[in-house]
Specification:
Number of strands: 16
Strand content: 35-45%
Largest sheet: 12 strands, antiparallel, barrel
Strand order of the largest sheet: 5-6-7-8-9-10-11-12-13-14-15-16
Distance between the termini: 24 Å
Helix content: under 10%
């Protein structure tokens, strides 16, 4: 279904693996290059025919200048800003990702997991980004016996406060047990708010409207597939740690995400249905995701 979260040069993408039949397996969240940059300095070069002692102050300053474009060429991993629900950020411009998620047993469900992989095309900064995703909805059965392929179209507006919009269809193609799931279409908007002057502690807010996985409990009970509201808030409390809350349309999710290393490996763990409103009940789930740009 949905998958991961990623943040590109000034933009972000969210991708979260969510099993169609495994409620709450939407744990994979990943973010990359969250508008941050490591930067790199140009290596000082000695002027031809001159020693360092003979160089003027102006020549030394030019040697030590930092190339501003170099900040766009390196990626820094960032923790997730979404959990269980999609954001409007998405993979594009040759982004690729892979992830797995596991969910503990619930009131009427057993331990299970999901896996997902995807790729991004186009450019969401200048026109439209396209994210293609393939998901295996259960790892308990034969590998890839049940799954779906989804697509997300997204547009990013850097000059409008990192605002983004997206529409998605989570099961363009589906097979196995996934064929019994309701169709999931959704639209979502996301905006990032910088709460500190150094932009190191952003709050990312998303709100959307969707069918299928986002239906209310009453719609599920009545066998209807009517649209319903969902959303999430993700606050980065440390450069490598974020806390997340989400509303799936019928239950509350709470999670934390961390990037323990300098490369884009993102770990996320939390609880779906934290208030025990659904038949499955409160369930613990964890995920790991990795993404690259090639």
């Amino acid at each position: 279904m949905f998958l991961l979260q990623h943040i590109k040069r000034g933009g972000a993408i969210a991708i979260a693996v969510s099993g169609l039949l495994v409620h709450g397996c939407a744990g994979i969240q990943q973010s990359l290059n969250d508008g941050l940059s490591a930067g790199q300095t140009n290596a000082p070069r000695e002027a031809s025919g001159k020693s360092k002692a003979a160089m003027s102050d102006d020549e030394i300053r030019r040697m030590l200048l930092i190339d501003p474009t170099s900040f766009l060429d390196r990626q820094i991993a960032a923790p997730s800003s979404g959990f269980l629900t999609p954001t409007a950020y998405g993979a594009d411009n040759r982004d690729a990702y892979i992830g797995v998620a596991g969910v503990a047993s619930g009131n009427n469900s057993d331990l299970d997991g999901s896996a997902s992989a995807g790729i991004g095309l186009g450019d969401a900064n200048s026109n439209v980004g396209v994210e293609l995703n393939a998901a295996i909805i259960s790892l308990r059965d034969d590998f890839a016996q049940d799954g779906s392929i989804g697509v997300k179209l997204h547009r990013y507006f850097r000059d409008a406060g990192n605002f983004a919009v997206a529409v998605g269809w989570s099961n363009v193609l589906k097979w196995g047990a996934a064929e019994n799931a309701e169709e999931t279409f959704y639209g979502v908007v996301t905006r990032r708010f910088d709460l500190s002057a150094d932009r190191q502690l952003p709050l990312t807010a998303s709100v959307g409207l969707g069918t299928g996985s986002f239906r209310s409990q009453s719609a599920i009970d009545d066998g209807e597939n009517t649209p319903n509201l969902f959303g999430s808030l993700g606050l980065r409390v440390l450069p490598q740690v974020s806390v997340i809350s989400s509303w799936t349309g019928r239950s509350l999710g709470l999670a934390a995400s961390a990037v323990p290393f300098s490369f884009p490996l993102v770990l996320t763990a939390g609880f779906s249905d934290a208030t025990d409103r659904t038949a499955a009940g409160t369930r613990f789930q964890g995920s790991v995701g990795y993404s690259v740009n090639f």
